[in-house]
């Protein structure tokens, strides 16, 4: 007689561990991490730019969750970035200068904005949805501009100070602490998003992106799942905005602007949607090229970026991460042939092959 075993108390922990095993850190993760460490030690003059890149990676990751993994089209993602930034700035000004508490405040406020706007935005689709997201961001922008007694309007929110991280690491003028702080937050956000997209919840959301009607017939509460992911992505965008407020000691009205929403869309288009790597690569390429091209030609740098975007869309519709995948697909057969040759030389058997299976002791 068959019977089922009850779930252990730590079933949730087991599911999280299983999700992480399905997406182990690979070679590209190691390359990006080494590049981040090398930047800290060998690019002291560019730490401010590097910190901005890290913040934009978090912002692009949050947009990728919404657009790449759930298929929600948006032109107003800056609403959550700006909400988190103003929340962190006002929290430091009136409540506490602690940076970690400021991050939590930014995430909570942005999640609240995402929840409220998501109830309206996710009821529609297509062009109507895009225009509603743009309308929500525009309303927040105008509210920030009008409420000058709170946000200081066009002058930007200033006058607050940020306490040392964990009470020990003071923000210095060279940007060392800010860079390491942003890198640590990015690593936490990245691991969280990896776990999220590979969890049963994340896989269900991806199924909704492919065919919402089929997932609904399978008993999945499509509207609730989309709203949950939208709120989570808004919270991550709020974390990015809070980081920006803490690192720069100013919150400008531009954090709520359409330009910022468009920029992060371009980052995602350059890197590739539906892949967390794509969000990271797109943010790096966009931010670094914007800085370098603007330094060379302050007048026409946007035209150069436009040409780059056209080339990527034409020759790499899957983004830069698609090019990396195609290169890896071409290299893989060569590596397998090398492995077979090495195994044959070691055993003397020309038919010997290597295997990736793990041997359990």
From TrEMBL:
<keyword id="KW-0812">Transmembrane</keyword>
<dbReference type="GO" id="GO:0015658">
    <property type="term" value="F:branched-chain amino acid transmembrane transporter activity"/>
</dbReference>
<keyword id="KW-1133">Transmembrane helix</keyword>
<feature type="transmembrane region" description="Helical">
    <location>
        <begin position="265"/>
        <end position="289"/>
    </location>
</feature>
<feature type="transmembrane region" description="Helical">
    <location>
        <begin position="100"/>
        <end position="122"/>
    </location>
</feature>
<feature type="transmembrane region" description="Helical">
    <location>
        <begin position="301"/>
        <end position="317"/>
    </location>
</feature>
<keyword id="KW-0472">Membrane</keyword>
<feature type="transmembrane region" description="Helical">
    <location>
        <begin position="227"/>
        <end position="245"/>
    </location>
</feature>
<feature type="transmembrane region" description="Helical">
    <location>
        <begin position="178"/>
        <end position="206"/>
    </location>
</feature>
<dbReference type="InterPro" id="IPR001851">
    <property type="entry name" value="ABC_transp_permease"/>
</dbReference>
<feature type="transmembrane region" description="Helical">
    <location>
        <begin position="75"/>
        <end position="93"/>
    </location>
</feature>
<dbReference type="InterPro" id="IPR043428">
    <property type="entry name" value="LivM-like"/>
</dbReference>
<protein>
    <submittedName>
        <fullName>Branched-chain amino acid ABC transporter permease</fullName>
    </submittedName>
</protein>
<feature type="region of interest" description="Disordered">
    <location>
        <begin position="340"/>
        <end position="361"/>
    </location>
</feature>
<keyword id="KW-1003">Cell membrane</keyword>
<feature type="transmembrane region" description="Helical">
    <location>
        <begin position="30"/>
        <end position="63"/>
    </location>
</feature>
<dbReference type="GO" id="GO:0005886">
    <property type="term" value="C:plasma membrane"/>
</dbReference>
<dbReference type="Pfam" id="PF02653">
    <property type="entry name" value="BPD_transp_2"/>
</dbReference>
């Amino acid at each position: 007689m068959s019977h089922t075993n009850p779930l252990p108390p730590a079933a949730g922990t087991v599911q999280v561990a299983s999700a992480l095993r399905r997406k182990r850190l690979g070679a590209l993760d190691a390359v990006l991490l080494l590049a981040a460490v090398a930047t800290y030690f060998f690019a002291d003059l560019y730490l401010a730019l590097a910190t901005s890149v890290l913040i934009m990676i978090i912002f692009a990751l949050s947009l990728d969750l919404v657009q790449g993994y759930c298929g929600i089209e948006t032109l107003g993602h800056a609403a959550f970035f700006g909400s988190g930034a103003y929340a962190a700035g006002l929290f430091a000004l009136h409540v506490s200068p602690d940076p970690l508490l400021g991050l939590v405040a930014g995430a909570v406020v942005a999640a609240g904005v995402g929840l409220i706007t998501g109830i309206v935005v996710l009821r529609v689709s297509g062009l109507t949805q895009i225009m509603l997201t743009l309308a929500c961001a525009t309303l927040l922008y105008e509210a920030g501009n009008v409420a000058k007694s709170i946000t200081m309007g066009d002058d930007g929110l200033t006058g607050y100070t940020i306490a040392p991280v964990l009470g020990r690491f003071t923000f210095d003028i060279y940007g060392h602490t800010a860079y390491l702080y942003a890198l640590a937050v990015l690593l936490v956000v990245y691991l969280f998003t990896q776990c999220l997209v590979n969890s049963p919840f994340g896989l269900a959301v991806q199924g909704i992106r492919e065919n919402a009607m089929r997932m609904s017939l399978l008993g999945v509460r499509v509207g609730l799942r989309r709203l949950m992911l939208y709120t989570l992505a808004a919270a991550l965008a709020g974390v990015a905005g809070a980081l920006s407020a803490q690192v720069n000691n100013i919150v400008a009205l531009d954090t709520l602007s359409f330009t910022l929403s468009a920029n992060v869309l371009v980052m995602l288009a350059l890197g590739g949607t539906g892949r967390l790597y794509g969000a990271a690569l797109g943010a790096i390429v966009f931010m670094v090229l914007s800085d370098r091209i603007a330094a060379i030609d302050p007048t026409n740098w946007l035209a150069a970026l436009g040409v780059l975007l056209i080339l990527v869309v034409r020759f790499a519709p899957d983004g830069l991460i698609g090019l990396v995948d195609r290169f890896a697909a071409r290299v893989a057969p060569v590596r397998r042939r090398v492995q077979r040759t090495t195994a044959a030389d070691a055993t003397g058997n020309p038919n010997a092959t290597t295997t990736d299976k793990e041997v359990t002791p």
